[in-house]
Design brief:
Layout: H1 3-18, E1 33-36, E2 46-49, H2 51-54, H3 57-64, E3 68-72, E4 74-76, H4 84-87, E5 89-92, E6 94-99, H5 112-133, E7 141-145, E8 150-155, H6 158-161, H7 165-175, E9 186-191, E10 194-199, H8 204-221, H9 225-232, H10 240-252, H11 254-258, H12 267-284, H13 290-294, E11 299-301, E12 315-317, H14 327-330, E13 340-345, E14 349-353, E15 356-360, E16 363-368, H15 369-377, E17 381-382
Antiparallel strand pairs: 1-2, 1-3, 3-11, 4-5, 6-8, 7-8, 7-12, 9-10, 13-16, 13-17, 14-15
Length: 397
Amino acid sequence: MDPTTRDYLRRRFRAYYASTDVDLPPGAESREWGYIPWTAGGTTMVRHKSLFDLGDVGTFLGDEGPRHVYFSAAEYHDPGAGTMDEKGWQGADLVFDLDGDHLDGVDESTPYPEMLGECKQALVRLLDLLTDDLGFADEALQVVFSGGRGYHVHVRDDRVRSLDSAARREIVDYLRAIDLDLEGLVRTESNRGTTRRVLKTEGGWGRRTHRRLLSFVDELCGMDEADAVDRLREFDGIGEKRARTVLGAVESTPEAIRTGNLEAGGPGVRTLVEALARETVTAETAPIDEPVTTDLRRLIRFPGSLHGGTGLVVQRVPVDGVDSFDPLVDAVAEPFTDREIEIEVTEPGPVWMDGDRFRMEEGVVSVRECVGVFLLARERAEKPRPDVTPEREHDRR
């Protein structure tokens, strides 16, 4: 990034912070703080800072206008100490990170809004797992749009605060259904000398698979025989003969199938349930970034700060407001919406911002500042040199 562009962004980031009140996280004085300044030659992290070192956070941000701002998921006895061992770890939030560009089916050709939309769907699945399966209250969850490619979820609950890395790894394995097999979803029941194996329906992935089984049985019951057989044959391991056997069991003993009885209908039912378990995992698991959750010393973006790669706000999102949240509208910094600036586009192409789509052509153009800041931060544009004059960078009327 050239010096003119870098200096411009720093000035505008400072203006944003000067006009914005920041809310500190719980235990802010016990957390480590870090930031990346607008320096030449890359993004060098300044860390091992405490609130004592920074002073008033709002004043610091308004004076410095950093490119990125972070705080620790953990709390320490001495957060400003120069080494991790000296800090004295006290406990940590349970933190999850979802990155849109890490999702299956998302690649470099995926439009930015589409990638963010896919990531929000993954966020909804994660929140469902955290509340429905792990029992966290909405009030214990803080959802944050990262300002870039996805979302963070902070779990602040005394039950998880002291968990070590290995215990957090187990939570990750559950949420991602790592090494999940059917045997772990089944229990054996005994009654008058006979035994049967049934799905566990009390909770977890067994209950989720059971829900899918119930829905699938209802689907089969609404089909004629030929269509039902064809539908069953879509699953690996179920040919026509086995499909007819399963369909017969569904028709003759539907309640046994609905209870998840793996003995009803012979091996075909087991094959069906295994396939539905795989479908459940694919459709409902949360593709979180594993190292973020297991790292007890992780720094994560400070809500309310600006993301130096987009100029968007690292925006808190109420749990009950996730469905309606549009990051390319709701995370646009207000100071960047009221005027136009000139930029020199070096990488043309579409931009989506503040509810509009813009087709950027190469060369010097006048654009809304939120669009310009985004392109400058993404290094798809530069500030023209020499910098524009005040007469050409004007308030929108």
